[in-house]
Amino acid sequence: MLAKRIVPCLDVRDGRVVKGKNFVGIRDVEDPKTMAKFYNDESADELVFYDITASADGRKLFADVLTSVAEEIFIPLTVGGGINTLDDFDRVLKCGADKVSVNSGAIKNPSLIADAAKKYGDQCVVLSMDVKRVGGKYVVFAKGGREDTGIDAIDWAKRGVDSGAGEIVLNSIDTDGVKGGFDLNMLSAICDVVSVPVVASGGAGKKEDFLTLFSTLPKVDAGLAAGIFHDRSLRIRDLKKYLKQNGVEIRL
């Protein structure tokens, strides 16, 4: 059995790490470089870096901030935000990213996933999905959760994997920042239709939420969180020990 992964996420806006609730109410948290070093030292399995306004602002990702983050860590780094072309893939990989996360760019140009997978390999391409319940359906949102695309999330996940995405990060807008637990129903629906690793994002509020996630949905490969790690209310080392003690395969 593969070890489950614990993944902190840096949502970066204007060069600073921020955090919100349901994708709104954004507040300043910390300098990205400082936080990256902290998570590297905390034994995080990976780190995710999202430039959360790049797509909405119609600009390129902040390469200088990304480079400074990459220099601080020795764990895999996934980067997203404003990824619209193969040149964008190339740029962030040269800045130190190991995997590149696409969201709005792939919605605008679905062939981007296939083209990137062909050039860089499936393992490099991560399909990030911001999903919300609309009229009883799971619907994909673009531009940092601002734009309802009308795309069915289940169909989009299947299309993305068929095109070459090697991993899916499922961000539940409904549970984001609420700290009431991961969106198990939404995650289950996605896990049932794909065969690649799925990363759960949105809703973690306590260590028990991660145990429930991995125990209930063994197909989920990783738990991603931001707020509870940023404010130190849950330390990653302590979380990993707790999960290990409760039978979850995890790297300490």
Structural descriptors:
single chain; 252 residues; alpha/beta; TIM Barrel; 35% helix; globular
Strand order of the largest sheet: 1-4-5-6-7-10-11-12
Query: What would you call the quaternary organization?
Result: single chain
Categorize the overall geometry: globular
Task: Tell me about the largest β-sheet.
Answer: 8 strands, parallel, barrel
Low-confidence runs (pLDDT<50, min 5 residues)? none
Helix content: 25-40%
Broad CATH class: Alpha Beta
The helix-and-strand class reads alpha/beta
Radius of gyration: 16 Å
Contiguous helical run count: 11
Q: CATH topology, which one?
A: TIM Barrel
- CATH architecture group name: Alpha-Beta Barrel
The arrangement of helices and strands along the chain is EEEHEHHEHEHHEEEHEHEHEHH
Number of domains: 1
Termini gap: 15 Å
Q: What's the overall average pLDDT, rounded? A: 91
CATH superfamily: Aldolase class I
